[in-house]
Model the fold of this input.
Amino acid sequence: VVAKKFNEALKCYEKLVEKGVEIPQLVGLLASAFTTMYMVKKASSEGVDDKQIAELYGFSNPNRVSVLKRNAKIYTNEDLKEIILQLCELDIKSKTGYNADYELKKFLLNL
Done:
């Protein structure tokens, strides 16, 4: 999803739902991924090097920072903030009677 490979993301989404993964869990995973990407991008823009970022956020593998930075290049900081807010709204919708399947697919298609 974060790399904007939507066809693959939708196929993966369908498989996870078929296996019984709840939509709020998926929303939480997405929110965590985008939040982490935002934090890494922000720290990097402030001059923090990859090793320090890995230590700061408790990543056992510093290469994770490189992957996050590469994926974050697709988005501006403002894009990431907006996506995180949309995921917060989606989380609420998925727990309050909205059609969670429809709402998550709509989110994915609007990325």
